Amino acid sequence: MTELVHHAADLPPAAAVVMTMGALHEGHAALIRAARAHAGRGQVTVTVFVNPLQFGPTEDLDRYPRTLDADLKLAELAGADTVFAPPADEVYPGGQPQVRISAGPMGERYEGGSRPGHFDGMLTVVAKLLHLTRPEAAFFGQKDAQQLALVRRMATDLNFPVEIVAVPTVREDDGVAMSSRNRYLSEPERRSARALSGALFAGRDAAAQGPAVALRAARAVLDAAASAEPPVVLDYAALIDPADFTDAGPAHTGPAVLAVAARVGRTRLIDNLPLDFPLELGAAR
Fold it and tell me: Around 243, how many Cα atoms within 13 Å sit in the side-chain half-sphere?
């Protein structure tokens, strides 16, 4: 039976933790199952906390779905031992913290450019939850590629004694990446939203011809989707070096992230695919 805990003093140290803002879906279940496999008989803790520091003044903090009863059921079925759902004053005693973790230049690009301060808020709460849950390993989805890269950088730069484990993106049958925000989409918007994953798959299929061709293939799909009804309004489509989240140029070799962000109706969606460009290809170009 999964135990619901509201106060950190009642938490046993975790072998593995999965941090969420609730509204759990199959993508979260995949994270929990991966944590369970990693932890063996150790404690698996899932955190559920809608972090106000991650939301800008025009974003959807009040709209964000809160489904704790359903979250408990999903977490239990996926193998969690504990769900830690703290109140705000447990995480931020005395109100919002005056001292926060800065994501630095790496957090100002792409998602950080569209959502100023978002990654500072994310890293601050991740750091606090790591302290409160005391895990050996923390599991994050590849869907939020910039978040994953920044958490890894924070753990390295600030000597957090925790292993950061990435879990591949889980997709719906139509290719759309699972997200709590998908529930905001109408049926026509959902059809248009397929263009994001379609663009990524087109880029992946063209990757053997090099980084520039892969990016052009992805953008071609998104250009066409701009005329759909409803339209896909592109924020960015980019090929990124995951080490520092700078642009990966046409001669890039090694790991890369093909990432897209767009609005469909009122809903902003992100998606990405990891790619790898061999040295021989980069040298030839």
Answer: 6
